[in-house]
Amino acid sequence: MTSGLLLAVCSVHALKPDESIVGVTAIDKLPVEGPVLVHQLGLRTDVQADRKHHGGELKALYAYAEEDAEQWAAELGRDVPAGLFGENLRTQGLPVSQALVGERWRIGSKVIAEVTMPRIPCATFERHMAEPGWAKRFLRKGLPGAYCKVVQAGEIASGDSIEVVFRPGHGVSVADVFGALDKAQAQALLYSEAAGEISIDGNVNKAVKLALRRG
Fold first, then answer.
1. What is the mean pLDDT of residues 185-192?
2. For residue 148, which of 69, 41, 73, 51 has the smallest C-alpha distance?
3. Is 210 helix (H, G, I), strand (E, B) or coil?
4. Domain spans of the chain?
5. I want to staple 168 with a disulfide (CB 3.0 to 4.6 A). Which of 14, 71, 92, 197 is the partner?
C-alpha cells in the first residue's frame, strides 16, 4: 500500500469577509504547531463557516498534495504554501488527487480518514485566490485534492506518516469524478457500493447520475 507524509496540519487563521450568503469564509488557513485533535467534523482547532457547502461530516478534512501545489506554484509564479487552498492536510508522497473514492488512510497512529469526494472550486475560492478565471483554471488542471470523512478520531501532527490501509476495487479516483465519469466508471462505483465497500455521496453521487443519464 502507498504511504506518505503529513507535511502540515492547517487551521483557520482568521475569518475573512466574503460576498457569500454567510458573509465570511474560513478558507484562510495556516499550519499549526503540535498535535491537533481530529473529530467527526474535522480539526478541533478549525472552523467551517458554511457547513452546507464547505464542511460537515463528509468534508471534515480537505487534503492537498505538495506535489500538486508545486505544479500550481510554477504556473502561477507564486508560492502555494500549506493552507492557501483552504486545506487542512498538506501531504507529500501521497497521490491525493488520484486517491480512490472510499480509500482509507491511517494518519499517525490512530486517525482513520476515508476519501469521499473531490473539491469543486467555488466563487469563494476564486475570490480568495484573486487569480483571473481561477475556478475554471482549477477545473482544467484536474488536481482537485480530496475531501475526507473521519472514521476514527484521534490526534495528528506535522511529520506523521500517512498509510493507505484500504483501497476499493472500483478504480475510480477523485480526479475521475472531478472530470467526467463515463458509464463504466459510474457502474463500477455502484457495484462497489452494493458490495458494501464504499458509500456514494455528495458530488460523486451527482457525477454517477449524470454519467448514467448520458449513457
1. 98
2. 41
3. helix
4. 3-170
5. 197
Residue type, 139: L
6-20, 32-46, 152-166: least confident range: 6-20
The CATH code belonging to domain 3-170 is: 2.40.33.20
Contact 63, 96 (CB under 8 A): yes
Cell of residue 43, nine digits: 480539526
Q: What is the 3-state secondary structure (H, E, C) of 74-118?
A: HHHCCCCCCCCCCCCEEEECCCHHHCECCCEEEECCCEEEEEEEE
- The answer to whether 82 touches 8, Cβ cutoff 8 Å, is yes
Confidence of residue 69 (pLDDT cuts 50, 70, 90): very high
Phi, psi of 192 (to 5 degrees): -65, -40
**Terminal Cα-to-Cα distance of the chain (whole angstroms):** 34
Are the C-beta atoms of 80 and 69 separated by less than 8 Å? yes
Indicate the helix (H) or strand (E) that contains 189. Answer: helix 183-194
**Residue 22 neighbours by CB under 8 Å, 6+ apart:** 49, 50
Half-sphere CA count of 180, side-chain side, radius 13 A: 7
Given the C-alpha cell 478565471, which residue does it identify?
Answer: 133
- Amino acid 40 reads Q
Question: What digits encode the pLDDT tens for the residues 3-16?
Answer: 999 999 999 888 87
The three cell numbers of residue 164 are 493507505
